[in-house]
Design brief:
Number of domains: 3
Shape: elongated
Structural class: alpha+beta
Number of helices: 9
Oligomer: single chain
Helix content: 10-25%
Distance between the termini: 66 Å
Order of helices and strands: EEHHEEEEHHEEHEEEHHEEEEEEEEHEHE
């Protein structure tokens, strides 16, 4: 609670404890520091405060109401706010002038305002480094804020400088090492895009020789061709784990059919396919952190005997966003059309490619599908040419064999009349 002390001139100084170490005071807290008569008094209500001076932590304000005025002095003393009002009374409790003035300051300037009064605080620095702070005078006194171009100023961030950096920096990190950087040679990763779906997509780590700007790769070399003939760039433990997963994935791909759907029917999946999808799930977020990732068309294993041509490779961005599959059933009068739509973060992709098993591609961005089921359905729709036409007389059979099952797992929007699918 409020305490008091008389100085050598017999002036009464009151000391109000702060709520916490950020020198916070709230209107509720102020109400608890005074009695009912002071709190409910209207004899000094919503006074006008005017800045007079600030020197060595002392903020001096003029406290005026209906033609009368007193001086109010404020200073932070460790965990308490020292308050002096020139009315110099009464003893034993905070006067109504000081209470009303503090209430105005907290109400209009915020409950962390008094943190600005500490040594080397905002007001202190604003007086010493005037070009870098905006001083704002109002009926609540004086406030100061750093100029916008300074953003956050070190030491002036109550409630924001409490991060335990020693503990944070010692905590485990999914990428514990920074990737070593070589100005000439770097590790790059090529996502193979099999032609005619002869194989499933894989990832091949390779060595890239950078251009003069260091912004892109001008020459690629497969690990099996030239890895021992050139100096291999140093790699981090993170990249070693990524490469191990890539080669493990490649071993499985070599033994697996190139499509998630069998050639004889639309049966999908299998244990091996699920294992490959699981490895991709682990690799994808790791690849998204690498700066040099490309797609590379691959006709077959023989193509790996030669280094890839730079002209055939495209730099790709791997997005962590997960695409959502939805369907639209449009009534065209004599027939229906079922079409798959893809949404990312709530936005519909106007154009996308499902040619790569497990993935959705939108221009230069690659998204990984949520599940093996999504991947199989996307492959099935791609095999159907992107949409399915159902004549009216076929609808009952289609509804029983296809639509009912799709509706159990995915949203299906029905559009009737002449409405367009892309509406």
């Amino acid at each position: 609670m409020v305490s008091e002390q008389c100085d050598q001139n017999n002036r009464i100084h009151f000391f109000i404890p702060f709520i916490d170490s950020t020198h916070r005071l709230t209107t509720d807290w102020l109400d608890q520091q005074v009695d009912d008569s002071t709190r409910k008094s209207r004899a000094w209500c919503w006074p006008t405060l005017k800045f007079l001076s600030y020197e060595q932590g002392h903020l001096l304000l003029s406290n005026s109401f209906q033609g009368m005025s007193f001086h109010l002095s404020l200073q932070v003393r460790h965990e308490k706010l020292e308050v002096y009002c020139s009315c110099n009374g009464p003893r034993g409790k905070l006067c109504q002038h000081a209470y009303a003035a503090l209430y105005v300051i907290v109400w209009r300037l915020g409950d962390l305002y008094f943190h600005k009064l500490i040594p080397n605080g905002t007001l202190d620095m604003a007086m010493r480094r005037k070009p870098f702070f905006d001083k704002i005078e109002s009926s609540a006194g004086m406030d100061a804020v750093p100029r916008p171009e300074l953003e956050s100023v070190f030491g002036l961030m109550p409630g924001a400088g409490k991060l335990d950096l020693p503990a944070l920096c010692k905590s485990p990190d999914p990428c514990p090492e920074a990737t070593p950087y070589d100005r000439k040679r770097v590790m790059a990763y090529c996502i193979t895009v099999p032609i005619m779906q002869k194989m499933l997509p894989g990832v091949l780590p390779c060595i890239g020789i950078l251009n003069k700007q260091g912004s892109d790769i001008r020459v690629f070399q497969w690990p099996s061709n030239g890895m021992n003939q050139i100096s291999r760039p140093s790699i981090s433990k993170w990249q070693e784990e990524l490469q191990t997963n890539c080669f493990e994935l490649w071993k499985m791909i070599e033994k697996t059919p190139g499509s998630i759907l069998t050639e004889s029917s639309d049966v999908w999946g299998g244990d091996c396919m699920a294992d490959i999808f699981g490895i991709w799930k682990a690799i994808f977020p790791m690849l998204s952190k690498e700066p040099f990732v490309y797609t590379c068309p691959l006709a077959g294993l023989r193509a790996l005997r030669k280094n890839p041509s730079r002209q055939r490779l495209e730099k790709i961005c791997l997005s962590p966003a997960i695409p959502d599959i939805r369907f639209v059933l449009t009534d065209k009068g004599t027939y229906f059309i079922l079409q798959m739509q893809v949404y990312v973060l709530g936005n519909k992709l106007t154009a996308y490619d499902t040619g790569m098993t497990f993935f959705i591609r939108n221009q230069q961005t690659l998204y990984m599908l949520r599940s093996l089921r999504d991947a199989a359905l996307a492959a099935w729709m791609q095999r159907c040419g992107g949409l399915i036409t159902i004549f009216k007389e076929q609808f009952a059979q289609f509804n029983q064999e296809v639509l009912t099952h799709i509706q159990d797992a995915y949203p299906v929007k029905r559009i009737s009349g002449k409405a367009q699918m892309h509406a």
